[in-house]
Amino acid sequence: MRVAILGNSGSGKSTVAHWLARSANLAVLDLDSVAWEPDQPAVARSSALAEADVSTFCTTHTRWVLEGCYGNLIEAALQFEPLLIFLNPGLEGCTAHCLSRPWEPHKYASKQEQDANLEFLLSWVAEYYTRDGPMSLGAHRAVFDKYPGRKVELRRVPRLDPPEAEVLAWLR
Fold first, then answer.
1. Which among 50, 48, 66, 71 has a CA at the least distance from the CA of 139?
2. Which pLDDT tens digit goes with each residue over 118-161?
3. What pTM was estimated for this model as a whole?
4. Cα–Cα distance between 73 and 75 in angstroms, integer?
5. Domain coordinates in residue numbering, the chain
6. Measured between alpha carbons, how far is 86 from 100 in angstroms, rounded to an integer?
């Protein structure tokens, strides 16, 4: 089983990815971990290096899920023919998830540091619908639309506890 999850910040990508990983014993790659320089969260890595890391992850693991808002990095994984999930719950859904986001210790030293970034995050989420580039709705729509493989777009965050039938079907 291979799964690539694409969507805006706050769309539920990490939550769905970790649920799938636990349910189906999948290796997980958060694309933030390859898109930015280690220990330098404000310094982006070159696309070529990040895409090479995605390919290495996909070839190293036979069963995996990766998630992120980087259209170019999702595209690098599509050659491995994953199920492509596009989480697209809209601005209101993404904003609500950002406001209720638990502390992410792999990204922030403390909950206070994460909360200090909330205003920026909410602005970033809102700009998704109008910005250009690989982290925009336009880019995500293009990646999704041109992918010929198995794919699903959800305009809501799926229920995971208990999992709805559509989610369970992904595990097959």
1. 71
2. 999 999 999 999 999 999 999 999 999 999 999 999 999 899 99
3. 0.94
4. 5
5. 2-170
6. 21
Q: Which residues of the chain have pLDDT under 70?
A: 41
Report the candidate in 76, 75, 98 with the shortest Cα–Cα distance to residue 13. 98
- What is the rounded CA–CA span in Å between residue 123 and residue 109? 22
Tell me which long-range contacts 137-145 makes (C-beta under 8 A, separation of at least 24): 137/8, 137/88, 139/71, 140/6, 140/7, 140/8, 140/69, 140/71, 140/86, 140/88, 142/71, 143/6, 143/71, 143/74, 143/75, 143/78, 143/84, 144/6, 144/84, 144/86
Q: In what order do the strands lie in the sheet with 83-87?
A: 27-30, 64-68, 2-7, 83-87, 151-154
| CATH placement of domain 2-170 | 3.40.50.300
